[in-house]
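To: structure subgroup
Subject: Chain for Friday's discussion

All,

I'm putting the inputs and outputs inline so they're searchable in the archive.
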Amino acid sequence: MPSLSPHPSDDIYMVIKSLLSLRANSTCAELLKDYDEIVGDNRLPRNFKDLRRLLQSIPEVKCIRNDYGLEMWEVRRTFNNNNNNKKSEYKFMKNDKPRGNFQNTGPSKKRSKSNSRTSSQTSSFTAAQPQRKRQRFLDHNITGHHRIIDLDGYINNYQLMGDDFMLSLAKIDLGFKWTKDPKTQVLRIGYCISGMSIKELSRIVRSSAYIDSRVVVYIGSVDILSGHKLDSIINDYFDLVSAFRERGIEPLLCTLAPLGDPARGDSYDGIVNGFNCWLESRKWRVIDINRCFIDDNGQTIRSVYQKDPRNVTGCNVRHLLWNKLGRQRVLKKLKNSLLDFF
């Protein structure tokens, strides 16, 4: 979380709007938590009723309800697009970030008079698809520094983190667009990154400027495919959970599906089963994805995998990924589990 040392004369409204801009949207409890961590004074009401009244008095702050009916607060800004304020409007579009489930379809810096009407109609923030968020935004509201932050890869307001299995689900079934690292050519959607290991995710969690407070993690397949021992995988996973807790996040952790490649026989089944048993024995919040790929006799369901293994951009070991049926099973399991945990 970035630091802020506001001057006593700072307008409390500006501080609130800056704090709300840290998240896609915030509950009253999350706003108070961010305020205590970043600002630390007593200007913000501690009573939710008084806090709501204060938020309602700020014209640009709006209250919405998420998919579960939870009260969320966000910043919405609208502005006119005419020749008199073209310069200041473009500066706002360039430096500020869209809020929550809104995307910026704003004008380009150069446009002719003939298309000025069309540009003005598309310059405001318009509602996006429920599961879509801006892939990146510039976070400058608190620190004054510009940092590119990934916000893609969400399901029911939970941020997805994982390897190629979660990456394909986010791309094909949730409709997010992936990006390619210009140096390594590795594909990613937010924090779903091709070939990502547990250690790499731990490093990302500790170093990233922004991570949502609600995350779903599916990680570990690459470690198993790369030949890591079970005790090494467990140690790395302990460190991953510690990295989340250092940021005050309690992640939702997923068991691993069988790797599913008949050509490899059952060489990985023992490690997958051992890891899943260990994970479910912990007092953590766990979603049992493995159950989506096992029949009543405990055998792997081959029909939920693609026909052949394929190369992935982030790992030199070929992956047998889930097919549409497999991904739909995982999506259904995730959505039902998120309702239970909520």
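Points worth raising on Friday:
The radius of gyration is 22 Å.
The domain at 149-340 is CATH 3.40.50.1110 (Rossmann fold).

D.
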